[in-house]
Fold this protein.
Amino acid sequence: MVGFFQQLQTALSRSPRAPTEPAERWCPRYQPTRLSHVTQIYADGKVDLQLMVYLPQRFSPAAPDLAEPQPLEQWCVQVKVGDGNWQTLERPASGSAYWSLALERLAPQTPLWFRYRDTAGEWQPLAPLNALENLYGTIYVPKLAYQWQTGLSQLEHASVLMETTLEGLLAGYKGGRFAPQAIEELLQGAIADRLLQTDIPGQLAEWGIDELMVPVSSSVADRTQLDPRFNYLTYNAVDLDWQIGHANAFMQLVDRFHACGIRIVPDLIFTHQVRAPFPGSLDGVARSDGEALFVDRQAYLFRDYGTWMFQLGDPEVRRQLVEKIVAFAVNHRLKLIRIDYVDGLVLQYANRDQNFAETFIRELRAELDRAAPDLIALGETFEVAGNPAVSELIDAFYAPIGFSIVEELYKPPEKRERPRHPNVETLVAELNQAANLQYPQACYAQLHDETWYDQHIVRGRPYVPWAYGGNPAELAKRQGESLVRMGELTGGELLDYVRRKVRNAEALTMFSAKLRYMFVPSVDSLALGCYDEGRNWQVSWAGVAPEQMAYWQEWGLSAAEIERVHRQHRTDMAQLRNIFRRYTKTRENTFQSFVQPGIYHCNAESSLLGVFRYSHVRADESLIALFNFGPHTFAGSTPYELPVPEGFSGQWTVLFDGDGAESAQAYTPGTVLETASGRYANVANVLPLRVGAMSLLVLRYCY
């Protein structure tokens, strides 16, 4: 591996391309005060740096409380620039613990190394927190000059967010033609550079996606042969991973996605950091008596995984983290960020008198408001969602309203009174309550944590093991296989059953949302198994994976039929997402939705639910989504008589029929239906509807 790292450092030190910024010189948009950063960028691409290194005197041989303190001169921090000699930084002024040094006109990708004398007087490597570029323990001058091409306006409709990885998108695209096969190949082109050679942003836009949430922080993962769990074992606190690319390449990628109307949402993972990933890592800065500068050794509710948590009781550590996060967001012109594991962050101090995590959160919010007032913070929190500091930080909360949907719809048949019928009444109160919550929500049924086996998910939801631990289609398949064994379903019907089950679960989650719906790519691909199993981390853009094709063929289906069902399912999900976006008007800067969803109709006997999405902007943009979760088809002389909401009699237009591609009874999109008096129910205004088994209809009011 030594040879590989030497190659890597050589590649990163190559001369950069000519800068695109026409001005003689300019400054980055955000200037930290506690981190090493670029202060000025020249037309030839060279930059000025201000180095800042936090090292209090008590972590040096000159610490006054040592048994034999050394002279003050032994308190020392040095830097080596490229092939130059070691230079000593300026000692902190009275009352400060920051070493500093100004450097002028350095070329991008010039390497920097730091060292300090520890309390024993020995030189130790050091990789201080910074707003530059990092490759393990080596810091590089970044190339920040970039002429942005696209501005991104505020969204005026609800957003669809897909959670995935950049490497997963690339690996599955066109048979992996653009993807690296080994980590060494990233020397010739990092993931961002390779993505820029594709039409992936354009294709995602066609899928009805507004936001792409991806982990981009430096981690121990090999992104060419990914174990996705390793993406969450990070170091260097929200640095851009070298495997993703240089800052300049990532800026180009963000800009390219902006041109297609898509925002990249980095999953910022900093609450936990990997122990000793390289010599000089922050967790190694400690006194001979064991006191650590950056590590909190008393963290409560600590997920180990070989990681540590930051000492947030130190105001300077907090400030450096704040500036690190804000610099990353501002300099890459991000519109959203996701803050990972907020529960663990706050509960880190649950057993102590003062919660410094709350202090950190408030300081981060204040700096974001000052430097990036339009940036939206998306947060995953369950146990501390009501914490006032958390409420101040998070603009849009994770809302797993789909948990109850998945738990009921995927429940094993043997646990039901009627194997083919979910108890839809259990969903009504929960979904209506969620729809009436006042804080902004990002709604989902399953994200990555629910699509693999996670011990923390198991502990949190021990009584519903069927509702997690696999991709959506895997959960539906397990249920369907039970029905086959019970004689309730034939083997030839299983694939169609699975795709209808997944479509209903995700569509009900989607149409219960007001601002943001989140999902994973395996919803569309009907991938079986778990996310971290085999090559399931790769996004399937089209077709059917060979192992899945073999599984479905064992049930007697032809390859052509299997391909057709998967293709139709992808089309259906994209259509449903675009309907959701088109007819859900919002005002993003105030997190206001002009649509109020709610379940207004429930037929427990036949397992149907009706969701009414009332539009406050225009009545003729109000929708009904009717879900048939049961096995019975309503057609011909026995249509389903659906009552319409009060005041909405008249004409309704069909936007989507779940049986549209395969049934002569299905409605063509654009079909206009008229309310009438019920023949079988004593109701004045009903829509007599043809509804397939396990299908759904989406209707728009048109007076």
Observations:
- The domain at 589-701 is CATH 2.60.40.1180 (Immunoglobulin-like).
